[in-house]
Hints:
The chain is of the alpha+beta class. It is 33% helix and 26% strand.
Amino acid sequence: MYKLNRFLAAACLAIALAGAAAYGALASPGCSLPPAATAPKGHAVDGDEAKRIAVKNVPGSKISDIVKFDFDKAKGYYVVQIYYLAGNYEVTVNAADGAVVYISRPT
């Protein structure tokens, strides 16, 4: 029984270390998306603020309702997709000033 517990502990540790290494590779500086907490260079609004702005524009929704989040470098817009009350909403937020550029609502 003791050997089995040691084996399971070692296996769990190996899996955790492999996951941490994979996460580090995904979050490398060469990543195409900026980290959510950092505003893109030359822009005032960071990813977390863009998410809050998007959620404010879909009444009743929460941050946890966000299903997709992206930054369009060419236009300087955050694109936030929110799934709320069986409908998909897409909110586009200007990274320079936080203005909502576009909202699509389900029909």
